[in-house]
Design goal:
The complex is a heterodimer. Chain A is an alpha/beta fold. Chain A folds into two domains: about 180 residues, HUPs (Rossmann fold), CATH 3.40.50; about 120 residues, Rossmann fold, CATH 3.40.50. Chain A has nine helices and 18 strands. The mean pLDDT of chain A is about 95. Helix content of chain B is about 30%, strand content about 30%. In chain B, strands 11-10-9-12-8-1-6-7-13 form a nine-stranded mixed sheet, sandwiched between helices. A two-stranded antiparallel ribbon of chain B has the order 2-5. Chain B has a two-stranded antiparallel ribbon with strand order 3-4. In chain B, helix 2 packs across helix 5 and helix 3 crosses helix 4. In chain B, about 50% of the residues are buried. The chains are: A alpha/beta, B alpha/beta. Chains A and B meet through helix 3, helix 4, strand 7, strand 9 and strand 10 of A and helix 3, helix 4, strand 9, strand 10 and strand 11 of B. The complex binds flavin-adenine dinucleotide.
Chain lengths: ~325, ~260
């Protein structure tokens, strides 16, 4: 199978999720006796081909153009579609990031092929099968592509490992054919949220607070812990609806569905909609003063106690551990 | 200003799921079916535009006869017309088929703007709005949390990781709506009464010029499973400072999470 991976960069840096996708692409190509390539778009991005080669790309189609300096689904959609045609892609892989989810359907509709969203598992023995959560993770469906038909996938970030699998990473300049008039929806600017903390969709550690936080001013203790662990701050819907924190932090069925390595739930009861969004986290810590809270049913470790006492101690202890104490 | 709003009839988020006897589908039990929560933002946005600029709001869905419940709900909120695309050939519609059905229907419903929810809860695909826009050859802006319309020019805010993208577009286009865009209204009693009298147009594959053979799903369902139960966890005990120390040790030594 010929596998083409869309490699996402922002500000000239490749997303880790794109290397994960490249590694999946490599495996898929190897398992089916094919080849894997990447396509990267931007301005001054040819240097990114090396990292993609290391993760398994034989070829890297580079669209280096001022037209790609800012993401737009119009320009990127055309260019990725073009790369897919030039390469003869049979599988088209994207990461299920904000950009990947916006771009993938533009490309697959252009090519007239199907798209499977948010894939979290791939089986390659005895035919190719993909596994994906539905109902925000309350169930998992396993599906097979129709034989002989090309398809697209978006892959959930933080699920697949990045593997070293050096290949040539030969740079091929993409004759993309995009002209300025093709860009109908124009990104005027990007306003970054305050603070240097990660987004919950990307973080490998999430410290989440719910109604038990009692007010917006108290999120600082979660930020301190998140910063100490290089993670993000999440929230339950109760906290978002109370206006304590913006919706972009909400975890759950109507927020973001996440699978970090570590999820720390503070003052969150564990309603079905919240559990749906985080139960596939590798390790879950629950801090709640109610021993009967349903969150303890999914917790790897639980502390029954007052979060205002526990969280600052937790931050201190992590700090101490990092200092080698 | 005529607005077409795509809505989906879905089991509500309280629904507990089981694997059905065929091992392929889900048994949703006595689930309560509702308008997809994100589509409520789309309906509300359409109604606000109509109130400001005049015109009509038409709601459309692809689904079974039971989906009329969600169409009635949107009509009760204040939508003017409703279209149900229903056909045995649509039963297994995946996002790609759904978008083609909607595109065929939209071609018969001239409008200035198409709104959809960010994604449909349940299927969780987050594709249909984008596929529809691409099929119709008009711009698509997804995950929109803010919208200003002046003439035919739109300024939109959309959510990305760690920030907001400000996007300029013009009508006609497709916009997928995210929480934060507005506060959906509840239908008034008057609205509910009026909705009962509004007509729902029903279209089948033949009415839309669609060949059922082309609507087969792009992926074949092989298995349905519930997530494996999580192994029983450890509830720590003792004085809180000691529990915290133990927790950090466990996270480091046992779980290797920090
Ligand atoms: C359509 C729909 C969609 C929804 N989508 C989502 C979603 O995406 N995400 C989501 O999270 N919810 C969602 N919900 C809401 C969900 O049903 C719950 O209402 C919500 O998750 C509750 O948030 P919570 O756990 O913070 O609050 P509560 O349930 O009120 O729990 C607060 C917890 O904090 C504990 N606590 C209080 N003080 C302290 C303290 N000092 N120290 C320690 N613990 C303390 C309490 O013991 C309690 O367990 C949705 C609901 C609907 C109807």
């Amino acid at each position: 199978m010929k596998v083409l991976v869309f490699a996402e960069q922002r500000d000239g840096k490749l997303k880790k999720a794109s290397l994960e996708a490249m590694s999946v692409g490599r495996d898929l190509a190897d398992a089916t006796g094919g080849s894997a390539a990447a396509v990267v778009l931007g301005q001054g991005v040819a240097g990114l081909a090396e990292a993609l080669g290391k993760a398994g790309a034989e070829k890297v189609f580079v669209g280096d153009d001022a037209l790609f300096a800012q993401y737009s689904n119009d320009a990127y959609g055309l260019a990725v579609g073009k790369a897919a045609q030039v390469f003869g892609a049979e599988a088209l892989l994207f990461s299920a990031t904000a950009m990947g989810k916006d771009l993938a359907p533009k490309v697959t509709a252009r090519l007239g092929i199907g798209l499977l969203s948010d894939v979290t598992g791939i089986v390659t023995e005895g035919g190719v099968l993909f596994r994906r959560p539905i109902y925000a993770g309350k169930a998992f469906a396993t599906l097979a592509p129709q034989s002989g038909k090309p398809f697209g996938l978006t892959l959930r970030p933080n699920v697949f490992p990045v593997k070293d699998s050096p290949k040539a990473g030969e740079v091929v300049s993409l004759d993309h054919g995009v002209v300025p008039g093709d860009i109908k929806a124009v990104v005027e600017k990007i306003v970054t949220a305050q603070g240097e903390l990660l987004d919950v969709a990307e973080a490998n550690v999430i410290v989440s607070g719910g109604r038990g936080m009692k007010g917006p001013e108290n999120y600082k203790i979660l930020e301190d812990l998140a910063r100490e662990m290089g993670g993000a701050v999440g929230a339950s819907r109760a906290a978002v609806d109370a206006g304590w924190i913006s919706h972009s932090h909400q975890v759950g069925q109507t927020g973001k569905v996440v699978s970090p390595g570590l999820y720390i739930a503070c003052g969150i009861s564990g309603a079905i909609q919240h559990l749906a969004g985080m139960s596939s986290s590798k390790v879950i810590v629950a801090i709640n003063k109610d021993p009967e809270a349903p969150i303890f049913k999914v917790a790897t470790y639980g502390i029954v106690g007052d979060l205002f006492e526990v969280v600052p101690l937790f931050t201190q202890a992590v700090k101490a551990m990092k200092a080698g104490a | 200003m005529n607005v077409l709003v795509c809505v989906k009839h879905v089991p509500d988020t309280e629904t507990r799921v089981k694997v059905a006897a065929d091992g392929l589908h889900l048994d949703l039990g006595e689930a309560n079916w509702v308008v997809n929560p994100y589509d409520e933002y789309a309906v509300e946005q359409g109604l606000q535009l109509k109130e400001k600029l005049g015109g009509e709001v038409t709601v459309i869905t692809v689904g079974g006869d039971d989906a009329t419940k969600s169409l009635r709900q949107a009509l009760a909120m204040g939508a003017d017309k409703a279209v149900l695309c229903s056909d045995p050939a649509f039963e297994d519609a995946d996002p790609w088929s759904t978008a083609r059905i909607l595109a065929a229907a939209a071609a018969k419903l001239p409008c200035d703007l198409i709104l959809s929810g960010k994604h449909g809860v349940g299927g969780d695909n987050q594709q249909v709005g984008s596929l529809l826009g691409q099929l119709m050859g008009i711009p698509v802006v997804t995950v929109v949390t803010g919208m200003d319309l002046e003439g035919t020019s739109l300024m939109l805010k959309r959510e990305i990781e760690g920030g907001t993208e400000v996007v300029k577009a013009s009508l006609p286009c497709v916009i997928s709506c995210q929480k934060g865009l507005n506060e959906p209204r509840y239908p008034s009693l008057k609205g509910i009464m009026a909705a009962k009298k509004k007509e729902i147009t029903a279209w089948k594959a033949a009415d839309l010029g669609l060949d059922p053979a082309t609507l087969a799903p792009s992926f074949q369902l092989k298995k349905m499973e519930l997530p494996p139960p999580r192994p029983a966890g450890k509830i720590l005990s003792g004085e809180i400072p000691d529990q915290v120390k133990e927790l950090v040790k466990l996270l480091h030594d046992e779980a290797k999470a920090i």
